[in-house]
């Protein structure tokens, strides 16, 4: 069954704990878009914010590092074994060093890639990660439109992961009108931001996503 990971990038930053609790009943995990203003042209959360919420919430965290130096910053996050730290294959730190740094935190390891990066860049690491995150928008800002080419990339990854217990996370521009196609292509975890947090009835919006995916 599809899992939902509400993205706190679209939440009200002035009351993040309340925002997280508002979606917790139907969320499988919470998605944190960590941006450094260099890898992507935006600044968001850092370890102090994520760690403060980690101490207050039981849901697993999915910490998506859209930063130049994931190997340096991954150890600064307080994580549980149920959490996942996801880094970008295009980051400046060597992939093997980043994977080792994340493993030392005790979290699961995930890898992501920009929409224009060939899928082949992540295939050599499929035996070393538990998650591959497919960006279906250009990373950096919420509220963007879904890039249709992401569906072919999801299908290619679904074929490549055969025999491995890897989750395919899809992030960007997903709503009730296109989620069925994303799931049919092979997406297991759907990251949704504005589709949830901009709704007057957030749990209703999450149920609509789940129903549309079926």
Any chance you could write out the topology, listing elements then pairs?
Blueprint: E1 3-6, H1 16-23, E2 30-35, H2 47-54, E3 61-66, H3 70-73, E4 84-88, H4 95-105, E5 108-113, E6 131-135, H5 150-160, E7 167-171, H6 179-185, E8 189-192, H7 194-197, H8 202-213
Parallel strand pairs: 1-8, 2-3, 3-4, 4-5, 5-6, 6-7, 7-8
Order of helix and strand elements from N to C terminus = EHEHEHEHEEHEHEHH
- Derived from helix and strand composition plus strand pairing, the structural class reads alpha/beta
Percent of residues in helical segments? 25-40%
CATH architecture: Alpha-Beta Barrel
**Averaged pLDDT:** 95
CATH topology-level name: TIM Barrel
- Envelope shape: globular
Strand order of the largest sheet: 1-8-7-6-5-4-3-2
Strand content: 15-25%
- The total number of structural domains is 1
In CATH, what is the homologous superfamily?
Aldolase class I
List how many beta strands DSSP finds. Answer: 8
Q: Specify the CATH class.
A: Alpha Beta
Number of helix segments? 8
- N-end to C-end Cα span: 8 Å
């Amino acid at each position: 069954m599809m899992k939902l990971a509400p993205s706190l990038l679209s939440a009200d930053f002035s009351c993040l704990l309340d925002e997280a609790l508002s979606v917790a009943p139907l969320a499988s995990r919470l998605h944190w878009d960590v941006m450094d203003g260099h890898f992507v042209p935006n600044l968001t959360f850092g370890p102090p914010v994520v760690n403060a919420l980690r101490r207050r919430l039981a849901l697993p965290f999915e910490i998506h590092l859209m930063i130049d130096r994931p190997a340096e910053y991954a150890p600064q996050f307080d994580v549980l074994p149920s959490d996942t730290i996801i880094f970008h294959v295009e980051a400046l730190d060597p992939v093997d060093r980043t994977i080792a740094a994340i493993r030392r935190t005790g979290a699961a390891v995930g890898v992501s890639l920009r929409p224009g990066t060939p899928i082949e860049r992540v295939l050599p690491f499929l035996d070393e990660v538990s998650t591959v995150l497919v960006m279906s928008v250009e990373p950096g800002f919420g509220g963007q439109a879904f890039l249709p080419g992401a569906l072919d990339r999801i299908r290619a990854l679904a074929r490549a992961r055969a025999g491995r217990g890897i989750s395919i996370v899809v992030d960007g521009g997903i709503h009730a009108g296109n989620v069925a196609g994303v799931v049919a292509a092979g997406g297991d975890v759907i990251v949704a931001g504005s589709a949830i947090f901009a709704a007057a009835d957030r749990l209703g919006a999450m149920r609509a996503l789940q129903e549309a995916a079926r």
